[in-house]
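Lecture notes, continued. The same structure-token format from the folding unit now serves as the input rather than the output. Read the line below as a description of shape only.
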């Protein structure tokens, strides 16, 4: 009887320890995710401010967009930063990684400045609010769901590759209907990627070495930032009122 009580007490103690460890891990992951969202939000603010300042300066607009070569240089810089961050994240410091992310956000703001010339400010603000709501719902879903979303990752990435190919093709044929279908597909793909990326980032936060958490937060912020920006741009094609 005493042995039975001892075993039960020991088993209860082990369960309590496991429960406490799990709770500690969840608090730790939640703290890291707050850093991810914080960096992502600051990146979005950087992009928005840069885009607005460029759009309201005729001098800067003329300087940047009078020559197509300038745009291609900016696109190349953006692509280069993403590739460099992804390839060298283990080698560079957290501070450098975060700085490069914000530099990317700044350059992207410059590239996106023309949307203020194409669409009304009211429709941009409305679309941004809708994007924020959609993003928030899907990111929360990805964070709290117990369903493993990794199986959807391959499907979403294959769909994204197909979307890119369709965009390239439509650059040559200029089909309005195809552009509409591309926009709809883009909304669906990046809505799904928001949930998938959130769960993947949460998993990385739980499994990564604590010394790497700052870098994980930066790369997570970059992933969610890209999801948000692309979702916003595709929704803007549906909801934006042109000037």
């Amino acid at each position: 009887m005493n042995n039975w009580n001892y075993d039960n007490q020991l088993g209860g103690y082990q369960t309590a320890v496991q429960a406490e460890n799990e709770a500690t891990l969840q608090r730790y992951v939640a703290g890291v995710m707050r850093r991810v969202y914080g960096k992502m939000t600051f990146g979005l603010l950087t992009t928005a401010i840069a885009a607005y300042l460029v759009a309201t300066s005729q001098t800067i607009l003329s300087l940047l967009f009078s020559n197509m070569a300038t745009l291609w240089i900016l696109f190349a810089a953006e692509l280069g930063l993403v590739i460099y961050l992804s390839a060298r994240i283990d080698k560079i410091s957290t501070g450098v990684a975060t700085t490069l992310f914000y530099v990317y956000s700044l350059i992207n703001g410059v590239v996106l400045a023309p949307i203020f010339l194409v669409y009304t400010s009211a429709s941009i603000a409305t679309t941004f609010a809708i994007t924020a709501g959609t993003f928030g719902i899907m990111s929360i879903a990805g964070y709290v769901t117990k369903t493993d979303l990794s199986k959807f990752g391959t499907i979403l990435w294959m769909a994204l590759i197909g979307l890119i190919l369709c965009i390239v093709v439509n650059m040559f044929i200029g089909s309005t209907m195809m552009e509409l279908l591309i926009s709809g597909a883009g909304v669906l793909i990046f809505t799904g990627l928001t949930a998938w990326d959130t769960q993947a980032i949460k998993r990385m936060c739980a499994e990564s070495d604590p010394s790497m958490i700052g870098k994980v937060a930066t790369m997570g912020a970059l992933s969610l930032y890209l999801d948000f920006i692309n979702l916003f741009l595709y929704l803007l094609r549906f909801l934006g009122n042109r000037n």
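Point for the exam: The chain has one domain: 2-239.
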